[in-house]
Every structure is written in C-alpha cells, then in structure tokens.
Amino acid sequence: MNQKVKTIFLLRHGKSAWDQPALGDIKRELLPKGIQRTERITQYLREINIKIDKVISSPAKRAFGTAEIIQQSLNLPDIIVETRLYPCSEEEIFNILIEQDDSIDNVLIVGHNPGLTYFAREYMDQNIDHIPTSGLLSCRYYSNSWSEFSLAERKLNFVVSPKSLR
Question: Residue 19's domain is classified under what CATH number?
C-alpha cells in the first residue's frame, strides 16, 4: 500500500469587534480589517494552489465568517460547524481530526486561541507564543489514517499571517 499524506490547515478567525460586550463572545462579528486580512490569506492559498477536502469551523460568528471567506473564494465544500471548537482546545481539535474518514486527506480547522496554538505546538512542532488573527499554519503527516496522524512523520508546509504577506 502506498503511503498517503494527511494535511492539516489551522486558521485562526479574523480580527473581530469588541465594541458590543452585551452581544456575547460567540456572536462577535468580523471587523472590515478582519475580512481584508482573511482575504489576503485566501489570495496566498490561491497562489500556492492548495487543496482542501473539508472545512470545519467553530460556531462562533467570527470563525464561521472567516471560514466562509475561504470557502467561497476557493470554492471549497460546505463548512461543517463543530460545536467542540468553541471554546477551542487542543484535545478537541485532536479528537475531531482522528474521527475523520481516511478518504479525506486535507482538512481546514477554523477556530480560536489558545487551542489552535497549543495544537500547533504539540502536533506541528511549532515553538510559537500565539497564532495571530487570520494566521494560518499547515503541516503534512505521512500517514494513511487520521487515527494515527499524531504518530506519523510530519513536515511543516508553511506558517503565514496577513502581516507576513505584505
């Protein structure tokens, strides 16, 4: 059997509004700046011709809005809303990934810190303090199965942020 590759993309939601505290955290909207920065990330993904088979997003409005920008611009499959991504923890990201069908090779997770950063440290071997808003990391795992991705040899594809793409 040929060795397959599983690829994980971690995207932190775009910059969001804090000006309506009564609205509740889960309902915070993307700011125009957050939309623009996410569009910059989308342009980068288009330029490097990535392939994403599945988009999984936190139900938070800012995360889902970020996922929609990527999904619509790159004509990706429908977004799967995953309540376990809000709040976002390293363990829940791991659990969501190992549950994926092995016919899927490329998964985009759109969520929140600190879970995304903790996941990147543990499973992408990244020594980072935090993933910035609209920040994106991608890592490939030489594995035939999502259930074994964490044990597989891995290679970082890229780490980008809107500021690094100026």
Answer: 3.40.50.1240
Put simply, whether the predicted model's pTM sits higher than 0.90 gets the answer yes
Which residues in the chain come in under a pLDDT of 70?
Answer: 1
Q: Judge whether 85 and 111 are in contact, CB under 8 Å.
A: yes
Other Cβ atoms closer than 10 A to 35: 17
Q: What is the pLDDT of residues 18-55, one digit of tens each?
A: 887 778 899 999 999 999 999 999 999 999 999 999 99
User: Helices in 99-165 by DSSP H: which ranges?
Assistant: 115-123
Which DSSP category does 87 fall into? S
Nearby residues of 162 by Cβ (< 8 Å), 6 or more positions away = 36, 37, 38, 40, 41, 132, 133, 134, 135
The C-alpha atoms of residue 137 and residue 8 are separated, in whole angstroms, by: 8
Pairing of strands 6-12, 106-111: parallel
Domain that holds residue 52: 6-165
